[in-house]
């Protein structure tokens, strides 16, 4: 790791080197650092939410294939299994290991102030990726890159508006992990749409925790109580797969002449169901953040300041016009 190399420099050279690196870390003469990295590589500790969805798998793959030894990095990867307490433990471990950067994909927005203050006090820059955090002091993180989840929800509602503006709609709403930015933004979008349409009703609203199993479970229990459903608004593709299985197991159809399924992520698997017509509209959420986080780190390494917030551009796909060619081009 670079701090070991720094320890060999004279005090004068050291202070110049720290300025050139834009680093606020305290110089150390202790050569027994704990991260196990080599003298020149940049050590990144990445706390990942979990492995709940196809999107998450693609995101993990993007990070792992970016932060490789060949690219000059050592990646310490931690899977939090959708639990914030595991992420807090991981961040504390990264601090102990004296990593160069902490990258956090936060499970929920709140609850980060204390541990990020510890990272700040240790002089370790924190980069937030994917979902956002809600902290009292913005200096607790250096930069964020991710999606505009409210805009994603609004896109879905705009499409519903073009299809169903004047129709009576019974909507089942399968939410993501409660308190995550992805859930908050997509839920706000739908609820604003429902508020604006007297004839749209949310008949059930429950979390599917962004997983296929939970999406199926929620949809099965809704179908037992209510057979008059027009739209299922799933907050990710995996929930949609579960909901589709439940709908079909109940002897009903998805798509044009059945229940309209709306989804988010637009993964290859999700868009395969869009091509088949079972997902009527799939709003993209781009998971390929590895190179984006690398750009932020490279900017910091040059002593420059990256953008504090960077939103990724995203599109949406309508089953009525989606083609095999477009599916073949998908990178994830
Ligand atoms: O934060 C992004 C969301 O998290 C994706 O929509 C979902 O699939 C993932 O688990």
UniProtKB/TrEMBL annotation:
Subcellular locations according to the entry: Cell envelope
All residue ranges annotated as the Periplasmic binding protein domain in the record: 44-280
GO CC annotation terms, alphabetical: cell envelope
Keywords: Signal, Sugar transport, Transport
InterPro entries to which the protein is assigned, alphabetical: Peripla_BP_I, SBP_2_dom
SUPFAM superfamilies registered for this protein in UniProt: Periplasmic binding protein-like I
Organism listed in the record: [Clostridium] polysaccharolyticum
Entry-linked CDD domains: PBP1_galactofuranose_YtfQ-like
One MF annotation (Gene Ontology) recorded for this entry: carbohydrate binding
The name this protein goes by in its record: Simple sugar transport system substrate-binding protein
The keyword Transport appears for this protein: yes
Span of the signal peptide: 1-20
The keyword Signal belongs to this UniProt entry's keyword annotation: yes
Pfam families: Peripla_BP_4
Protein family according to the UniProt entry: Belongs to the bacterial solute-binding protein 2 family.
